[in-house]
Amino acid sequence: MIASDLDGTLLRNDGTLSPRTLRALRTAEDAGTEIVIVTARPPRFVDRLAEAAGLVGTAVCSNGALVYDIAARTVVSSRVLPLTTARRVATALAAAVPEVGFALETGNQVLYEPAYRLRMSEDVGAELPVPTLADLWLTEAPVTKLLVWSDRLDADTLLAAARPGAGDEVQLTHSGGRGLLEISAPGVTKAGTLEMLCAARGIDATEVIAFGDMPNDLTVLTWAGTGYAMANAHPAVLAAVAAHTATNEEDGVADVIERLFAGQVRPAAAV
């Protein structure tokens, strides 16, 4: 299995999948290797990418909260964040880190309160404002992530500031978004969900090659038998992962796959 993050990893900076990378993925699939997308993105983003690039197969979305069948456009399994937990954690974080805004990701929509002023072009049509923070907790939709945004703190600083207030009730991480913290149900990680997926398929961790660039990818990169950090990766990822490849702009994932299927790449421990 090849497990790859999307933004900053498989995709170029303009959000596209290069022809070279697409050819490399097809080569791996033709050789019997399963390609699994492992991303912080929701299914709706994967749908748009699938339409543009013809991707099929399985995606682990929302940092592990959802397993998604790309071709069928169906959520196969989910691990949601209880709304009561999201509210308790948001209350604690608002006290610990003033002037932050909150939003709820449901997989289909982003519900946001007035202080959450982050707008993403790819979410146009999926964003739903609510009048007050209190109204955010009235949703009946299943919540995959609580999003916390600050216009004055970078993601690393925000994560460090939020961790004491969140306690062990949730899983905190970030994927590099400016001042954006992503919070899932406790124990929900990309690696945890990928491990369950592999177990169902009879695939051992040693048979998995993973690619990523941000802190939310670290669980996968360190769990997989071979993990590659992109050259453009977050400093913490570059420091923690021994094997590196070229940047996403230089088709680093394709570079490894091409050499792998030419018999030129050995496991990371031997590189």
What oligomeric state do these chains adopt?
single chain
How many helical stretches? Answer: 10
**Gyration radius from CA atoms, angstroms:** 18 Å
What is the percent of helical residues? 25-40%
Mean pLDDT over the residues: 93
The CATH superfamily of the largest domain is HAD superfamily/HAD-like
N-C termini distance: 19 Å
Number of strands: 14
- Which of globular, elongated, flat, extended, rod-shaped describes the shape? globular
Note poorly predicted spans.
264-271
CATH hierarchy: architecture of the largest domain: 3-Layer(aba) Sandwich
CATH class of the largest domain: Alpha Beta
Looking at CATH, which topology of the largest domain would you report? Answer: Rossmann fold
Describe this protein's structure.
By secondary structure, the chain is of the alpha/beta class. The protein has two domains: 2-78 and 189-270, Rossmann fold (3-Layer(aba) Sandwich), CATH 3.40.50.1000; 83-184, Hypothetical Protein, Haloacid Dehalogenase-like Hydrolase, Chain: A, domain 2. It has ten helices and 14 strands. The protein has an eight-stranded mixed β-sheet. A hairpin with a 4-residue loop joins strand 6 (101-105) and strand 7. Helix 2 packs parallel to helix 10 (252-260). The longest helix is centred in the N-terminal third of the chain and has 14 residues, at 83-96. It is globular. The model is unreliable at 264-271 (pLDDT under 50).
